[in-house]
Amino acid sequence: MDCKWNESMTRASTSQTTVDGREIADFAAMADDWWDPEGPFAPLHRLNPVRLQYIRDKVVARFGLDDTAIRVFDGLRMVDVGCGGGLLSEPMARLGADLTAIDAGEETVAAAAGHASRMGLAIDYRHTTAEALAHAGEQFDVVVSMEVLEHVADPGLFVRSCAALVKPGGLMLLATINRTLKSYAFAIVGAEYVLRWLPQGTHHWDKFIRPAELARFLRSAGMSLEDLAGVVYSPMDNSWRKSRDVDVNYMACAVRDA
Questions:
Q1: What's the pLDDT score for residue 16?
Q2: Domains recognised in the chain with CATH numbers
Q3: How many Å apart are CA 28 and CA 96, to the nearest integer?
Q4: pTM value?
Q5: DSSP string covering 190-252, please?
């Protein structure tokens, strides 16, 4: 496994950056808990099946892949931006992706890299940012960034930086939270104070992104929004499923023309 602690993080810290230091510190404090399915990241563990299926479906359709193949992502260079502890990085690597995974939290990347090493997975983990990676001129067939946009300091810059990483003809997949009264009730009051799924203060309503705002960020970055899909919680089986309801959690697929 190749784990790079590169100098691009230093460059990013002295120029325009998407990093919110408060958010990074909050996640650093929980770095050892990423792979505990009943810990503070339990909601992400339950979200993983629906968001991984969305990624798989969109990548297969975009690149005309064999959906029956076990390593369906073979031959694709992919990056997981804001990878956290690697909850999505590891299954994408198992599906055959040549995977780079980046995060602005040093402790978080270390935890992710350690877990991948124990699992015998070759993931190129790096402590860096999307804007630093874009500045270095790197590009990928698929850029994935799930549940990150609502935690960055400058969402417009973040989307532009992620878009710069997409090769012509490539794909970008995002997931975030809509800024509605419903999302305040469900994602903050319900998830953090009533059900206590998340530590209080995990989310800040004013940082949530409306789909129209995301579409505008994408257009300005030369990307076309192809699809929006809501994600809703089913209390009957304690799981998440794809939905037409984008009032709270939603996923987005954007493409760059060849």
A1: 75
A2: 3-255 (3.40.50.150)
A3: 29
A4: 0.88
A5: IIIIIS--S-TTS--GGG---HHHHHHHHHHTT-EEEEEEEEEEETTTTEEEEES--SSEEEE
